[in-house]
């Protein structure tokens, strides 16, 4: 299964006739979905045994009820009316209902029917449409306004939802009402990429949000008291709770201790990033139970690392017992300072809590991190976008771009794929010279838990960003797993250029970049000599720039030593882009054509020829009319 569909799994697909099966087939192949059919005969001759097909008995309505609870998404190829009737009795709450997507039986349209935001149906619809080359039908107002869904805003950053009148708030936004935003914690990246015409008023003072009669998005480590106007609360997970406790303190005492401290300080339990303590407590049963109950990570530190942390309330007694003067405060501070070395702050110094009639005692301190804990495994998708035109990008690469939280690339390439971007995505377009910064930025965001698509023109792994990102990952001592890396191939410039002039690459060929920015010129010259002599067809990348004009002339001279002046040469500029220019010429005359950094130069071998305006390299050295040794195929 492609990792693109991972977040929608398990997916159930439903078809009731062979036409529907045929339409769903490419989607089934890529998504790993299970196809449910009423009769095994309808898939005969259409799907192969590698796909998961299951037959249901009895009515689809009853069968759907059994699938509903344990599937994340449903994809129907059925009339929308039928689907509406089928799912109506099962719909419960949009925070928990699965995504429902419907394909029409001509395969032209994919409709996001239900669960557009929170269940991800809009996203799934976009992906299915890309897979089937169909049109996505998204009817939510946020799509029209090019805004992120307010009820999914914090998902990329792992924020947890607090109270929210999400439907009313979304309606207010759809009606273009003014919406206050109070953000006291968490990433503000989402703010940087809004359309010009957004309804948000930022920097509203927290106190004003408590009283104002205006719809409000509250993004904070704190809770917001009840108020009249609709509000949506998101809690970035910035709070690390440092805990020290007596052996055997029950989970209930630890949990109520935490709740009490949070209430006293108006802090949101949903903003807890995790629990921090000393390694001696790594097996403390009550603590482990609390972590499990609230789905929190437990970070444990040695006494040696804890004793070096400056804390407001050190204790000599604790130092004598466990070898560090502070457990709760020091652990909270250490946990809240992840690798980036940001500063963090102890916002609640240690308090000791006991529950009446219960054994044990717990010490609690809270530190606030600058960057929220996302609880997500980041992904780095290294994506080749082909030479330029959207229809020359693979559906998988399109899916990766549409699905990523962040798209990073050189600004020209970001412009080329702009139609594939979706509302709410974080787009970082950087100048062409800043490749290493682009790679570092992508790695930092992925290490933090985001899904980042790094785009290169052509193929990402051919003079592209893939190599650079992997090199940088190595300098970070990457373990090969986290963040997950996936490379999406693209049509490279030499293929694209070749396709426009005929079949020049029909026999052995190679690519040489003439850029000596990263490779010493003598090495390049030596390679040119070797391949010219060995009669390879050659594609020259980076042939000439404003400051680098000599190299292409030297290359020409080297080839002239080994090949006829009449050898065909194609000079192909901006292929598959609006300003495409193609010149078919010869080795002797090639420098008379304009050549620049947007050009690929293809030089034929000794057998290459032109015919009726086409460039062709025969498949072998047998010459025209000679019979090949084996049958032609
Ligand atoms: N990763 C890219 C190559 C990047 S190096 C790929 O696989 O295609 C940049 C060089 O690629 C340019 O100097 C030019 O030689 C070539 N190139 C990239 N896009 C091109 C296009 N649309 N038309 C012609 N040449 C192109």
What does this structure look like?
The chain is an alpha/beta fold and about 625 residues long. It has five domains: about 140 residues, 3-Layer(aba) Sandwich (Rossmann fold); about 80 residues; about 130 residues, 2-Layer Sandwich (Nucleotidyltransferase, domain 5), CATH 3.30.420.180; about 110 residues, Cobalt-precorrin-4 Transmethylase, domain 1, CATH 3.40.1010; about 120 residues, Tetrapyrrole methylase, C-terminal domain (Methyltransferase, Cobalt-precorrin-4 Transmethylase, Domain 2). About 30% of the residues lie in helices and about 25% in strands. The strands form six sheets. The chain has a seven-stranded mixed sheet with strand order 3-2-1-4-5-6-7, with helices on both faces. A five-stranded mixed sheet has the order 8-12-11-9-10, with helices on one face. Strand 29 and strand 30 form a beta hairpin. Helix 16 packs across helix 17. The longest helix is centred in the N-terminal third of the chain and has 14 residues. It binds S-adenosyl-L-homocysteine (SAH). S-adenosyl-L-homocysteine binds next to helix 18, strand 26 and strand 28.
């Amino acid at each position: 299964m492609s990792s693109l569909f991972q977040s929608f799994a398990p997916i159930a697909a439903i078809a009731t006739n062979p036409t529907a099966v045929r339409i769903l087939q490419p989607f089934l192949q890529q998504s790993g979905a299970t196809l449910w059919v009423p009769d095994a005969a309808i898939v005969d001759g259409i799907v192969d045994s590698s796909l998961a097909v299951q037959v249901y008995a009895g009515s689809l309505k009853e069968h759907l009820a059994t699938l509903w609870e344990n599937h994340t998404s449903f994809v129907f190829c059925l009339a929308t009316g039928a689907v509406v009737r089928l799912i109506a009795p099962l719909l419960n709450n949009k925070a928990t209902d699965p995504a429902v997507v419907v394909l029409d039986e001509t395969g032209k349209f994919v409709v996001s029917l239900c669960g557009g935001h929170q269940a991800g149906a809009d996203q799934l619809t976009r992906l299915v449409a890309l897979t089937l080359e169909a049109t996505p039908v998204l009817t939510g107002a946020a799509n029209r306004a090019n805004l992120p869904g307010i009820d999914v805003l914090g998902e990329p950053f792992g924020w947890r939802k607090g109270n929210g009148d999400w439907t009313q708030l979304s309606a207010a936004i759809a009606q273009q009402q003014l919406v206050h935003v109070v953000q006291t914690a968490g990433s503000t990246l989402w703010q940087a990429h809004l359309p010009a015409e957004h309804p948000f008023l930022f920097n509203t003072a927290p106190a004003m949000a408590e009283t104002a009669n205006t719809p409000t998005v509250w993004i904070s480590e704190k809770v917001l008291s009840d108020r009249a106007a609709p509000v949506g609360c998101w809690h970035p997970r910035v709070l690390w709770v440092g805990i020290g406790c007596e052996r055997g303190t029950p989970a209930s005492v630890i949990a109520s201790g935490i709740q009490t401290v949070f209430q006293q300080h108006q802090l949101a339990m949903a903003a807890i990033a995790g629990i921090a303590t000393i390694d001696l407590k790594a097996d403390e049963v009550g603590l482990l139970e609390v972590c499990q109950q609230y789905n929190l990570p437990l970070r444990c530190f040695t006494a040696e690392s804890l004793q070096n942390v400056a804390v407001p309330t050190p204790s000599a007694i604790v130092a004598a017992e466990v070898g560090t003067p502070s457990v709760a405060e020091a652990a909270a501070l250490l946990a809240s300072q992840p690798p980036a070395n940001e500063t963090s702050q102890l916002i609640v110094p240690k308090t000791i809590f006991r529950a009446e009639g219960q054994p044990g005692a717990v010490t609690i301190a809270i530190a606030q991190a600058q960057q929220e804990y996302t609880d997500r495994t980041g992904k780095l998708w290294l994506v080749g976008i082909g030479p330029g035109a959207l229809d020359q990008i693979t559906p998988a690469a399109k899916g990766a771009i549409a699905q990523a939280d962040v798209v990073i690339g050189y600004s020209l390439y970001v412009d080329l794929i702009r139609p594939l971007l979706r509302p709410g995505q974080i787009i970082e377009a950087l100048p062409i010279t800043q490749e290493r910064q682009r790679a570092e930025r992508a790695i930092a965001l992925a290490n933090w838990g985001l899904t980042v698509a790094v785009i290169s023109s052509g193929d990402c792994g051919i003079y592209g960003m893939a190599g650079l990102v992997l090199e940088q990952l190595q300098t970070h001592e990457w373990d090969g797993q986290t963040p997950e890396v996936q490379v999406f191939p693209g049509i490279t410039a030499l293929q694209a250029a070749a396709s426009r002039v005929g079949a020049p690459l029909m026999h052995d060929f190679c690519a040489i970049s003439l850029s000596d920015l990263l490779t010493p010129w003598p090495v390049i010259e030596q390679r040119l000599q070797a391949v010219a002599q060995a009669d390879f067809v050659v594609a020259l990348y980076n042939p000439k720039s404003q400051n680098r004009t000599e190299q292409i002339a030297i290359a020409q001279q080297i080839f002239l030593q080994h090949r006829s002046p009449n050898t065909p040469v194609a000079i192909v500029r901006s292929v598959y882009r609006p300003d495409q220019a193609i010149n078919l010429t010869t080795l002797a005359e090639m420098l008379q054509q304009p050549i620049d950094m947007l050009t690929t130069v293809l030089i034929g071998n000794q057998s290459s020829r032109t015919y009726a305006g086409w460039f062709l390299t025969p498949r072998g050295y047998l010459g025209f009319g000679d019979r090949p040794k084996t049958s032609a195929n």
